[in-house]
Amino acid sequence: MTTLDDTPVDPVPGRFAAFFAPRVGGLPRAFWALWTGTLLNRLGTMVQPFLGLYLTTVRGLSLGEAGLVMATLGAGSLCGTLTGGALADRIGRRATLTLATVGSGVGLLALGYAHGIVAIVAAALLVGMLLDMHRPAAQAMVADIIPPHDRPRAFGLLFWAINLGWAVAMVLGGALAQQGFLWLFWIDAITCAGFGLLVWRAIPETRARGHGGPGAIKGFGAALRDRVMVGYVLISVMYVFVLMQGMTTMPLAMKEDGLGPGDYGIAIGANGVVIITVQPLVNAWLARRDHSLVMAAGCVIVGIGYGLTSLASSTLTYTATILVWTLGEIIAATVLQAVVADLAPADLRGRYGGLYAMAWSAGFLLAPLGGTQLLALGGGPALWLTCMGLTFAAAAALVALAPAIRRRHDAALKAAFSSE
After folding, report:
1. Per-position DSSP letters for 235-279, written without gaps between them
2. Quick count: other Cβ atoms within 10 Å of Cβ 11?
3. 208 by DSSP, 3-state: which?
4. Which contacts (CB < 8 Å, 24+ apart) does range 411-415 have?
5. What is the pTM for the complete model shown?
6. Distance CA 34, CA 155 (A)
7. How far is it, in rounded angstroms, from Cα 306 to Cα 303?
8. How many helices (H) and strands (E) would you count in the chain?
């Protein structure tokens, strides 16, 4: 296109294409179906954030009973991720994801209508087992359909969809809870089931024929004998333990500084805003860097952010520290799951994904337990400086593992190119 004086002008569509192509271009239709389902599922994730409030206000449970229900949910998640990993390798990614998500919808409705502590705990166990069972299957599905060099970009796009859906769900969930908590259970159930049905309709089975995998015990034994994978899982537990402090004990620390729930909502809201706006801009660039070193850098920045929290005492300063560790979270999230996909043999991708998902479940369980103890024993400085130390240790361990992770990544790339 030219102007009246024949001066060339870049067409606007061309500029848009140049910007978006390296970020979202070249990924198969099956991936975008999975991305859409993930976003739909997260848009409806309303029960877990408001479950404690629901149990104590609507069902009249004590704080101790509500804690028992939440712990049961977490214990179920630990079992569910391992089960989901085994099923993804045995019966397929598509069937496992659909079974888990549709089952989650049924379980959420059972939890919403349960009365009495026994029935509520039983329903929470069912929901916990099913709610995260789809994660290893989804991760294995991405590894099946996306070549190694593009996996960080794909996982980064899923991370963005998860956070976008989460941000919207928090706003809608808070408004709907005022109209009645059962709305949350129904919407969460429908979006869970919709995710599974979308995948069933739009994505064929991605597991290669003949890759049914060994038995569950044998398969997990092989994964546990992989010292690089075990080391990476332990590092992930430390990282998740620290990251989840922002969602668990930070409101309590802010309360000790005289700040209320509204102040925490403003501060933690910055996390979602930064992820949604910054992550798409840096994802493609980070994806081309050494995976283990990218994650190590992310851990260091997360640690610095949490370490600086020991100096925070106002909404503004808490928000500033959250902005720092959110940048580290964005950096690490680009490669977290891509490393697992590189480490996993094709017939054990589900089980490797299950072990990795278990690290997140374990970290989420341990975060409030360890964080509250540290806060009670030494106050905010003890908690936040311990978090900084843990992330620095995780970064050092990642640097030590870097050569082994790099070799496995190169081998995965070579295998992918030789199969084309």
Report:
1. HHHHHHHHHGGGTTTHHHHHHHTT--HHHHHHHHHHHHHHHHHHH
2. 10
3. coil
4. 412/148, 412/341, 412/342, 413/147, 413/148, 413/149
5. 0.80
6. 11
7. 5
8. 17, 0
Structural domains for the chain: 27-204 (1.20.1250.20), 215-420 (1.20.1250.20)
Q: How far apart are the first and last CA of the chain?
A: 39
Tokens of 330: 């964005």
- Cα–Cα distance for residue pair 148/402, rounded to 1 Å: 17
**What SS3 class is residue 6?**
coil
- Tally the C-alpha atoms within 13 A of residue 193's C-alpha that lie toward its C-beta: 13
Contact 101, 192 (CB under 8 A): yes
CA dist., res. 123 & res. 116, Å (int): 11
Predicted local distance difference test score (pLDDT) of residue 186? 95
Let me know: does 103 contact 365? Beta carbons within 8 Å.
no
In the numeric block, the tokens 């998902």 are attached to 357
Q: Rg of the Cα trace of the chain? A: 22
Other beta carbons within 10 Å of 328: 25
Distance of CA 234 to the CA centre of its chain: 16
CA nearest to 67, candidates 117, 109, 108 = 117
* Maximal C-alpha separation, the chain: 80
Task: Decide if 34 contacts 142 (C-beta within 8 A).
Answer: yes
Q: What is the rounded CA–CA span in Å between residue 144 and residue 93? A: 10
pLDDT digits (tens, 9 = 90+) for 358-384: 888 888 888 888 888 898 888 889 999
**Spatial separation of the C-alpha atoms in residues 87 and 350, rounded to whole Å:** 7
| Residue 10 in this model has a pLDDT that exceeds 50 | no
Do 288 and 335 meet the contact criterion of CB atoms below 8 Å apart?
no
Task: Report the alpha-carbon distance of residue 39 to residue 17 in Å, rounded.
Answer: 23
Q: Read off the DSSP letter of residue 294.
A: H
